[in-house]
## 1
Amino acid sequence: MAKYNITEKKEKDASYRSLVRVEMVDQLYEKIIQKLIVEKKYRDPEYSAKKLADDLGTNTRYISAVISLRFSQNYSCLVNEYRIKDAMYMLINKQFADMNMEEVSEAVGFANRQSFYAAFFRLHGCSPRQYKLTHQIPDVRDKEEKEKEKALKEKEKAKKAKEKAKAKAKEKAKKEKEKAKAKAIKKSSK
């Protein structure tokens, strides 16, 4: 996993996790889901664990403990997981076909493209571009490819029209030549 400078996550055993009451864990879990996921606060690159704790009227240690116990990951990993899920949807959906990687990255809440690529690679083992190419719905093609195809069709159409006009002109010239020849024969027979 040398790509994108990713290091393996070290497991820590924080002592404060065991100090959180089960009832509090359940309450905070529901509030975290509501605030972070339902309200899609994860899309805000400035929304930190501190801001979440302030919004929920608690402290960051409790937030960290609940996320660790219920989601089995830390705050950053949780947020990035939901951002990547949104990005995956956007990468293969027709509605977002015109967006480039930077725009997708920004739309789902990453502060920069590098963070987006690293998080995506960490979760899926490929870049967002590779994912888009391998999971793309067949009729969703790059805008450039569609334009090239359209230009080629127009070129073929113009070529056929030119050939048709040339054949028509040739046929008209042939008929006029035959008319002139018939006129000359008629004149000479008089």
Note: The chain has two domains: 3-135, 142-190.
## 2
Amino acid sequence: MKRLVNHNEARKKGAKTKKSYHTFKMTDDLLEVFIFLKAEEEKARKELGTVYYDSDYVFKRKNGELYYPDYISEQFRKVIKAHSDLPQDIKFRNLRNSGISIYLEQDMNIKSVQQWARHKNVETTLGIYAKVKSFDAEEQIMECINSSLPLSSTQKGE
């Protein structure tokens, strides 16, 4: 099935809210990627001339046309489907959730995770992802209690 995209419509819609626009810090490695993409864009623009679709988007087809909005999710689904050893119910959005879970699992500062996830408040982040931490919480509490007890190792073994 071929999809048609009205590029102007995608541009007009933009982000859901003003707060959805966000600036991220860029690493040197990421900067190199963007410089490479810009050089590739210039080559394609010269090769295709007036056929090139001009826009200020970074990720687009070689001829400058924009990808349809769910292109990445669609491609991700195809990759997952091609690998039967992977969970078939995983969605592209799950990668974001997994990232947040991993950050919390590694005890990253909750406020930093909340800001990275762009949740309105810490409670949202904790409410959604607290289940990840709760599993380890019991074990950590038991370890803390055990290490606090004044029992020697010989008394524990009796």
Note: Residues 1-69 form one domain.
## 3
Amino acid sequence: MNDFPINYKVAETTIDKLLKFFKKSTIRGYCKNCPNFQKVWSCPPYDFSEEEYIHNYKFAYIIGAKLNYSDIREYVDKLICNSMDNIHISTDIYYKLRGIVDKNMFSMENLYNDSKILLGGKCTLCNECAREKNSPCLHQDKLRYSLESLGFEVSSITENILKDKIIFTGDSLPPYCLSIYALFSKEQLSTKELEMQLTSSVH
């Protein structure tokens, strides 16, 4: 897992421009059909206004973390030999990628004041979220949300801002796993510097 060659791409936009992709009511409808709805603190519903949270920042850095299956062919073949189907193979690789990139994102956030990262999916710190038992989050300092959980249409953001495409697993494995993160900031940052920070992080 430590030698997974993850490729990072960072694109800058403003919060005002990003709000073009804010489709809270539509996305919330999808969330209600998700098994994590009301069960994970990083997922809705929230006890705060998503709009107010977003407007705390001025700039948004959309970050694509991509892992090409051709670069981990040996690992993929191993999963296939273990009789895993395509969905389980893609899920396994997605969480391997998350395990690496989440750590890199938290490290990057620590370098920039007045910034907050958004993860590429639900929080994965605990095997079972305390919300399941109606208890407070056990890691309040590390609780982070995602673009989608706040109400953004991630597929459109990926195609229009990052100029890439999320490909879902079907009858065959996709060519890559792409997870979309973000860094919200009150100050303008360098996309090249952000990419360097992510790439140089220890996997």
Note: The radius of gyration is 17 Å.
## 4
Amino acid sequence: MQSAGGVGRKRKLVLGDGMADGRKFSRAERIGNLVAKVLVSSGVGPKRMHLLTVQGRKTGRPHTTPLTVVETDGQRWLVAPYGGVAWAKNVGASGSAKLRRGRVMEQVKVEPVDAHESALVLKAYIHIEPITRSAFEVGPDASLEEFEAIAPNHPVFRILPVRPADSVASE
């Protein structure tokens, strides 16, 4: 589930041509995100669910949203199934975030990846998060080439751990 950052705010899907849709998150989606935040902050729910906190690129205030961390080939990834939503823009601008599940918090670096690298991650994501399938232009059985073609519409970020020296330098 993804949060648009507040009740009634519009979710914008950034398409490859720069166009955006103006759909709003439904009441059910907003309630689902709220429930997910409470559960994940308590350490309840699927192990893949985390709270992502990232500094707003405009306000500088921290924003938190529940999301899925995808694990493939020993690496971890963040996926924005609804396109260029606020958290994805903020993560892209800052390059860092905090991931939290229960009492465990981790400072991480994030970096966007290209369409080719995104394809495998998107395919894995659509299998583990069926609730977001309607946001994708292809189905779970689509080829990697088809996932690569839609990758510009669904940003993917590689999660990198912050070494102790990195965190001291950024403070």
Note: Confidence is low (pLDDT under 50) at residues 1-23, 167-171.
